[in-house]
Amino acid sequence: MISSEPKIVQSELSGRLLSLMFLRVIFVSLLLGASIFIHIKATQTYFGHIQTFHYLLIAIVYFLTFVYALV
């Protein structure tokens, strides 16, 4: 009997995970750039604690991506 479950090769899985991590870094970098652009262009800070949380979240994503890449 033929198994209907596809077998994914380890190297293919590693390639997929690396591309997903790369896309996540690109997306987070775009968010960081947009946030910095808004912060520079704005004369007043409208976001307050939300903006601080946003920067913290971006830093956590960068850190976790670095840890995942090492693992």
Structural account:
By secondary structure, the protein is mainly α. The protein is 76% helix and 0% strand. The protein has one domain (18-70). It has helices spanning 10-41, 49-70. Helix 1 runs antiparallel to helix 2 (49-70).
Radius of gyration (CA) equals: 18 Å
Share in helix: over 70%
Count every beta strand, where a strand is a DSSP E run of 2 or more residues.
Answer: 0
Number of alpha- plus pi-helical segments: 2
Mean pLDDT, to the nearest integer, reads: 78
The shape, in one word, is elongated
Which spans of ≥5 residues are poorly predicted at pLDDT below 50? none
Distance between the termini: 37 Å
Question: What is the strand content?
Answer: under 5%
Total individual domains? 1
Oligomer: single chain
SSE string, helices as H and strands as E: HH
**Structural class of the secondary elements?**
mainly alpha
Q: What's the story with the biggest beta sheet?
A: none
Give keywords.
71 residues, 0% strand, mainly alpha, 76% helix, 2 helices
How is the topology of this model organized?
Elements (H helix, E strand, L loop, with lengths): L9 H32 L7 H22 L1
Helix pairs in contact: 1-2
Gist of the model:
The chain is mainly alpha-helical.
